[in-house]
Amino acid sequence: MSELNANHISMTFDEPNGNRVEALQDVSFNLKQGELLAILGPSGCGKSTLLNIIAGFLAPTSGAVLNGNTKLTHSGPDRGMVFQQGALFEWMSVAENIAFGPKMAGVASEKIRHTVDDLLETVGLQDFGDKAIYELSGGMQQRVALARCLANNPDIILMDEPLGALDALTREKMQSLVLKLWKETGKTIILITHSVEEALFLGERLFVMAPRPGRIKQEYYLPFAEEGLTKDPRDVKTSAEFIAKREEVLSMIWGMEEEIMGNNQAVGL
Amino acid sequence: MNMSLIKSFKHYSGLSKSGINNQKTSTFGDTEAIGKGRFWSIVSVITLAIVWHFGSTLGYINPIFWPAPSTVWQQFISISQDGYRGFTLWEHIWASLYRILIGFSLGCLVGIPLGFAMGLSEKVRGWFDPIVEFFRPIPPLAFIPLVIIWSGIGERSKILLIFFAALWIMVIAARAGVSSIKLNKIHAAHSLGANKRQILQHVILPNSLPEIFTGMRVAMGVCWGTVVAAELVAANSGVGYMIMVASKFLATDIVVLGVIIVGLIGYSIDIIMRKIEAKLVPWKGKS
């Protein structure tokens, strides 16, 4: 059981025109093993920066991220990453993509084959192992991306708008798949999204972030992810509580937009 | 030919457009809808052959300027049987081909790793950028006098020129291949636990193959131009040499034969490379 700790993370950088941008200001949180955290916020609120710091692709200006007692300074196989799109390897088949992590770690090929077969079934792509990536639809490609990440058995899965490029129907199906994988594997998941509905439905915890400087504006603990595991997603999303929360969060984000742009312009939209 | 005749010919020859492309109504500017135009390629070649044949037999074309197809064909038969200037026709062709293959391979062997290094390391890029950018626009033929002084008119001088012709193109292609990678892919590989060597081998290298193939096709074309020109100046075998000697005797039939051979072989090489490309890089343009 390990816990993810973000301790007073701040991130400032200088733009080429000399402006100093405060992308993150004193962000702190704890994430228990097996929690599903959704991060929501308008563009420029630093949510991608935060994810990249946790992934180890960026070093914060101050503060630190700890996995258990280990300070995280570089990317590593303990934190798997699922991107919006374009991160699969087109020169490999579906099965080879999923096998990438274990193969690089030198796992025996017999064992890799088992892992890949299991995961293909988990994500519903049993008969697609030999297919090329460009032969798959966008939704199927994201299933491969999820399976590839799981094959490495990371402690934490980081998702950077993984469903952002999908059509509405595929997106709903994939949300259910994410919930199913979360329950079955017990992994800690951090998911970034632009969609208020998706954040509320998937996030057991939810951070709403505000821009300039990027910070956590509001934190929620939500029941909808648990409900989504047993109930029909449509019923959850149309329940009175869900709709009430959605309006609350939406008006909060609208408030931020108006703060940035000034009332006149916001109304002018 | 009326349109329905063309249509039925296209259909039965298997050269017609297929599927939905045949039913699109706005095709102007839609590159998929316009098809490959194979049918019109065949028409074009046949038309040129007919114009050439009748232009010559009816006396519109002076054979000193441009010989008749039958004369060229007879030259082809006689040279392929008796040879020309001490070498058979195949030896001449092979001489040119050999120079290209060796020079081109050396160019790839040096150029691709150098391009990779320039794409991956700031220091290497900084060191070599002025050198590459300086030599790249200079036509390799400008080096002919120097190359002859250095290594005479033997094989080495031609191979050196072709090496120069291929080198810069391959450096730039490989460098472009490295920088074409999406950061997402590199990050994904890192977070899947791959080390630098593994990322280079399994991610950066295969990802750059489309650019490298494009570079190779461009380089191949330039190499042909260079070898023929080099043989025109200094050689004792090769297709370019054949053309040069024939021109001194006003033997335009041999000159034209040489030109046709160069064109056909260049075209064939490009077709072969496109086939290899389709086999090795099937994802090109599809992601």
TrEMBL record, chain A:
Keyword DNA-binding: no
Record keywords: ATP-binding, Cell inner membrane, Cell membrane, Membrane, Nucleotide-binding, Translocase, Transport
Cross-referenced Pfam families: ABC_tran (PF00005)
InterPro entries: AAA+_ATPase, ABC_transporter-like_ATP-bd, ABC_transporter-like_CS, ABC_transporter_ATP-bind, P-loop_NTPase
Alphabetized Gene3D superfamilies for the sequence: P-loop containing nucleotide triphosphate hydrolases (3.40.50.300)
Residue ranges of every copy of the ABC transporter domain listed in the record: 4-236
Top-level division of the source organism's lineage: Bacteria
Annotated GO MF terms: ATP binding; ATP hydrolysis activity
Keyword Cell inner membrane part of the UniProt annotation: yes
Family label: Belongs to the ABC transporter superfamily.
Full protein name: Taurine transport system ATP-binding protein
From TrEMBL, chain B:
Topology with respect to the bilayer: Multi-pass membrane protein
Main location, first listed in the record: membrane
PROSITE patterns attached to this UniProt entry: ABC_TM1
Domain ABC transmembrane type-1: 93-273
Record-annotated membrane-spanning stretches: 39-61, 97-121, 133-153, 159-178, 218-243, 249-269
A GO CC term assigned to this protein in UniProt: plasma membrane
Protein's name in the database: Taurine transport system permease protein
Gene source species: Marinomonas pollencensis
Compartments where found: Cell membrane
Record InterPro entries: MetI-like, MetI-like_sf
Gene3D superfamilies per UniProt: MetI-like
Family (UniProt): Belongs to the binding-protein-dependent transport system permease family.
Top-level taxonomy: Bacteria, Pseudomonadati, Pseudomonadota, Gammaproteobacteria, Oceanospirillales
SUPFAM superfamilies associated with the record: MetI-like
UniProt KW Cell membrane keyword: yes
Example GO BP: alkanesulfonate transmembrane transport
Keywords: Cell membrane, Membrane, Transmembrane, Transmembrane helix, Transport
